UniProtKB/TrEMBL annotation:
Residues 44-389 form the Amidohydrolase-related domain. This is Amidohydrolase. The lineage of its organism: Bacteria, Bacillati, Candidatus Sysuimicrobiota, Candidatus Sysuimicrobiia, Candidatus Sysuimicrobiales. Keywords: Hydrolase, Lyase. Signal peptide: none annotated.
């Protein structure tokens, strides 16, 4: 079990512990003084994965003519994948609702674990209901269904407290359909970013993806890159296919580094000055050595990339953010403190739990690893600024 996982009691559920975050008090109950109408936001979770309770919730929202086609349920399955299966199908054992259904599909149960037990104030929702498929029009149709489902449930009917924000799913292999989907939802008050899956035929800085980047930047929506596996050539490494999940999981950072390097040197941040990009669930310690190398090479080879006007590290500082989960756990805790300094974590890092997945990061444990001077920046401020969230929210139980 990862060291930052919350210990489980004999029932398989986390112990009900209380504590603080080293200066950031943490509420472990959803019940507060009803006379209090607003509370200060302490934790923004930038990576939460809601799921529909059944495939029917997506099927009924798929646009025609695709809705009438007889698709197998695997098309909609957010858990099963035929290759590189994570422990427990990637789910926390204690996250399955008592009444049935997949983890993070039962509103009350998920909110108790996320808001009550973990003390999260805002959750940014990244649905993993769409896997890359050979037919991009097919994939785009499931993306459209997912966005409709998320908008009508978690971002509307479930969102009376205003604590949920969401990511739009689009198919990067069909940029015109992706742009159409972005335009369809542009201006929605609770969609705050556009999610792209990194298993692509080319890195995201290349021109075929520019219409998607342009549409997202036009509407002030960051691009969030998040893994969402499916069998196929997208899992190919530079030297073939890995044998095991542990290999694939360890290589997320190399996958992200390829896309980040492309975005920089293809001039995406010069072409789209308001573009913001988030790399979710790929760690962050790799950023420092990569940027050292890129800055040094740019100093000698800048004529090869005329669109790059500044050091690569400056583009990252102004345009790119990373989520904290899975947080690096060196045997010497002091090494992690140095990494925080090297990567400018106070500016670049946003906290995330990855709820309800097996390698969930508990805020109570993780936050203590952030130095006092950057703790609030990572836990809340960086996400508040990126997504334009208010610094206070309605108190639980208030009218």
């Amino acid at each position: 079990m990862p060291k930052n996982r919350q210990p489980e009691d004999k029932t398989g559920r986390p112990e009900n512990r209380r504590g603080d975050l080293g200066g950031v008090p943490m509420a472990r109950s959803l019940h507060v003084d009803r006379g209090q109408t607003d509370v200060r936001v302490k934790i923004v979770d930038a990576d939460v994965h809601p799921a529909p309770r059944s495939f029917a919730e997506l099927r009924e929202r798929v646009p025609e003519p695709w809705r009438s086609r007889d698709w197998p349920d695997q098309v909609f399955d957010a858990v099963e994948t035929p290759t590189y299966v994570a422990p427990g199908k990637a789910q926390r054992r204690d996250a399955y609702p008592p009444g049935g259904g997949p983890p993070c599909s039962d509103l009350a149960f998920a909110e108790q674990q996320l808001f009550g037990d973990a003390g999260v104030d805002y959750a940014v929702l990244l649905p993993l209901t769409v896997r890359p498929v050979p037919n991009p029009e097919h994939e785009a149709a499931v993306c459209a269904a997912t966005n409709s489902w998320l908008a009508e449930t978690w971002l509307s009917a479930y969102n009376r407290h205003g604590r949920y924000r969401g990511a739009l799913r689009v198919c990067s292999a069909q940029p015109d359909l992706a742009v159409r989907e972005i335009e369809r939802w542009a201006g929605h008050p609770h969609f705050v970013e556009v999610m792209l899956v990194p298993y692509t035929r080319a890195p995201f800085g290349q021109p075929q993806y520019h219409p998607i980047l342009a549409a997202a930047a036009k509407h002030g929506l960051p691009i969030v890159v998040h893994v969402n596996r499916a069998a196929g050539m997208g899992l190919l490494t530079p030297v073939g296919f890995a044998s095991y999940f542990i290999e694939h999981h360890a290589l997320y950072s190399l996958l992200y580094a390829t896309h980040l390097t492309s975005l920089i040197f293809e001039g995406a941040f010069e072409k789209f000055p308001t573009l913001k990009v988030v790399f979710a669930e790929g760690g962050f310690s790799w950023i420092a050595p990569l940027l050292w190398r890129l800055d040094n090479l740019w100093a000698h080879l800048r004529s090869e990339a005329p669109l790059v006007k500044r050091r690569p590290s400056e583009y990252v500082r102004d345009h790119v953010r990373f989520t904290s989960q899975p947080i690096e756990e060196p045997s010497d805790a002091g090494h992690l403190q140095r990494v925080f300094e090297w990567v400018d974590a106070a500016r670049l890092l946003m906290f995330s739990t990855d709820y309800p997945h097996w390698d969930f990061d508990d805020p109570l444990r993780v936050a203590r690893q952030f130095p006092d001077g950057m703790r609030e920046r990572v836990l809340r401020d960086n996400a508040l600024e990126l997504y334009g969230l208010p610094p206070t929210r309605r108190a639980d139980g208030s009218a």
